[in-house]
Amino acid sequence: MEKQSRLRLLLGAAFLMATSAIGPGFLTQTTHFTEQLAASFGFVILISIIIDIGAQLNIWRIITVSGKPAQDIANSLLPGLGFFLSALIVAGGLAFNIGNIAGAGLGTNVLFGVSPELGALLSGMVAIGIFLVREAGKLMDRFAQFLGFIMIGLTVYVMFTAQPPIGEAVVKTFNPDTIDYLAIVTLVGGTVGGYITFAGGHRLLDAGIKGKESLNYVNRSAISAIGIASIMRIFLFLAALGVVAQGIALDPANPPASVFEAAAGPIGYKIFGVVMWSAAVTSVVGAAYTSVSFIKTFSKKIESNQKLVIVSFIAISTLVFVLVGEPVKILILVGSLNGLILPISLGVMIIAAHKTRIVGDYKHPRWLTIFGAFIVIIMATMGIYSLTEGIPALFAS
């Protein structure tokens, strides 16, 4: 594979993972917790970035070296474990995709005044259209990159108009007034939890990038993916902080829209529509692609009809939203539950990294093993705490 083609694939995988993470839940969670924690939310972002990088590097490296998708690795480790992991991933992916479709409907409602339901149906058709073309993989990569740049650029503009107290944000990032475990679990779950961290790894595998010789490229792609998602998170946090610091209360029904409108007026509200739609529809594509990648190796029929299964996944998500809907608190809940999937999936990958029947003569770096094990323990502990303490309080408020 020529160098330019390889770099294009690595960048595509990075943006697929990042835009899978940057969805309606991402926007909602970031603004919700900024309102709650103000500048101290910077500390939560910092800790989540460190955890995200450790999780992502472990998982992408092991998938690359083994040359197998995560479910096959898990089944090689313990028969049946891959089916269990896939069930968790697909269920979480479907739940998230309902929220993604809802966000796309909201974005079109803001932009064109159509009902969220009609907007969701039209957006679902756009996502489905990507997988109906012959070169679906290339189109998916370019689609994610194009809208990813648009989202970040528009959010930077709104951040500057909000005039956030950047100095205070820097200080509180390293010396917070309070530490919110639910916020950390939710952010990690929304960035590398569930299906998201596997999106880029499975995309690279499908493109034929595997083996120890590809590790340097994969490391760069994995870190770039976290970097892209984190840049968006930081700019959105600063935009929200600028609004909150002025004493403006955010609309609990739609916190991110409040930020964009308060910072940049009617134009800001339209910008929110573009950002929300872009975030939502790229996440729809990423969630559908990655969720199906977790079941396609279980059946030759699914593998040979992968595009049809992806299209069906998107169609089901769209219909469920049209019939049921998705409130803000459910998006936060799903992010937290996705954070609980991470200790399981990462734990499986770390154990597999030390089994020669799976990775051959590859030696997984000791520091990555220790870092990964630490993340598993911390995320499991904070996840259980958030479920028993934080989430009941969230729904009681």
UniProtKB/TrEMBL annotation:
Membrane topology: Multi-pass membrane protein
Annotated keywords: Membrane, Transmembrane, Transmembrane helix
The keyword Protein transport belongs to this UniProt entry's keyword annotation: no
Keyword Transmembrane in record: yes
Recorded GO CC terms: plasma membrane
Gene Ontology MF term list: cadmium ion transmembrane transporter activity; manganese ion transmembrane transporter activity
TM helices/strands, residue ranges: 37-55, 76-98, 110-131, 143-161, 181-201, 222-249, 269-295, 307-324, 330-353, 365-387
Any GO BP annotation: iron ion transmembrane transport
Chief localization: membrane
Name under which the protein is recorded: Membrane protein
Upper lineage: Bacteria, Bacillati, Bacillota, Bacilli, Bacillales
